[in-house]
Design a protein that fits this description.
2 domains, 5-stranded antiparallel beta sheet, 3 helices, OB fold (Dihydrolipoamide Acetyltransferase, E2P)
Length: 156
Amino acid sequence: MKLKSTSTILFLILTGALFTLYGCGANQSGRVYSQGQAQRSLSVYYGTIIELQEVTIEGSSSGAGSVIGGIAGGVAGSTIGHGRGSTLASVAGALVGAIAGSAIEKESGTKAALEFTIELDSGRLIAIVQEDDGYYRVGDRVRLLQSNDGTWRVRQ
């Protein structure tokens, strides 16, 4: 009986880790910087938004969700039945957990975004996709920041 309660605790810990992973998607807003982006020089441009389109930034899968989900599902399945039935339940739980963990990880990185078409003051047209910050409109004057690696941000 002690083994089953240990398995339950391990299952709860791994499930918690999976849902923590769910909330860890990278932020691609124009207002959020990573530590590596701080204190770097940026080129500044000004322009006007001439078109906005709602788009989706698709999440990716590193495999961590599958691993954590598979372990959690296997542990949960091992608490069912005895002998061969417990083994089959563990395998089935691991497969279902891996599939669910992968889906949760991918969904956590999927974000609503905007595709901006901007006419720079120089007359050049550019398009930039970034996470939807919720306050841009066609006709807005914006400040654009370009990093040395070619990454652009739209800011008001």
